[in-house]
Amino acid sequence: MATTPRTTKAAPSAPRDLPPLPADPASVDTTHARALSKTLFARLDSLEEGTAEFSYVRNSLVELNLALVRFAVGRTGVRGQSYEDVVQVGTIGLIKAINRFDPGRGVEFPTFALPTVLGEIKRYFRDSTWAVRVPRRLQELRIDLTRASAHLEQTRGHAPTVPELAAHLGLSEEEIIEGLVAANGYRASSLEHPNDTGDPEETLSGHIGFADPGLEKVEDLQTLQPLVAALPARERRILALRYGADMTQSAIGEELGISQMHVSRILSRTLSRLRAALVHGR
């Protein structure tokens, strides 16, 4: 039985009117890379997109300018992601910059391309990283939960419950709940985001934080503590019996051997003094 010989698609060769590229474009120094890039951009402008020559020239420009991508990654960092993944994302930005670059405007390519590369990397961080750092197993569980939720909702016609997700993924309900809670850390919402009431003027900040009325009482008590400690012993005892033991003025008078009217005058004088000191202290 005759066999058909296997054929391999040959890589596009360099156009004859271009200087040969170095075997390792990454080893080319910056000055040489810029000069060669200018020649390649001038040639790219005359080629039809989709042709083998166009692909060769554009790929050569990418290889010559990968140092720009590595420089951009060095500026942004990898933020817990794989270095190779971030470089790949930056390379996409580099390709976009090559496609849009117009050498006739007199701008150096690195100056033009760097914002595009940085923007692509920052967009990747914004769309693909977590607002709150969680363990990798929970990051992977979030992906599984997203896929499982979409599948179950399509097949069953309703949003899946925790038991349904647990059965589908072969996990315990506790693990599902942990994954759902952790998924809340994937995005952070602004406090100025409109609330679900339909009123564009009503934001989340108006429903999350509020002034606790008990805070002012705590401040008053802390301010009063040294003022009460400075009172004469009898006045401190009368305050303790009246407001600590909740005794009536008559009962306090009997306890101390004085009249109810005397107790009333002492309380009134003491409270006025404390009130004045408290207001002055504010």
UniProtKB/TrEMBL annotation:
Keyword Transferase carried by entry = no
Claim: DNA repair is one of the keywords in the record: no
Residues of the RNA polymerase sigma-70 domain: 85-98
Q: Per its UniProt record, what Pfam families does this chain match?
A: Sigma70_r2 (PF04542), Sigma70_r3 (PF04539), Sigma70_r4 (PF04545)
Locate the region Disordered. 1-28
Which GO molecular-function terms appear in the entry? DNA binding; sigma factor activity
**Name of this chain's protein:** SigB/SigF/SigG family RNA polymerase sigma factor
Biological process according to GO: DNA-templated transcription initiation
Keyword annotations: DNA-binding, Sigma factor, Transcription, Transcription regulation
PANTHER family reported in the protein's UniProt record: RNA POLYMERASE SIGMA-E FACTOR, SIGMA FACTOR F FLAGELLAR
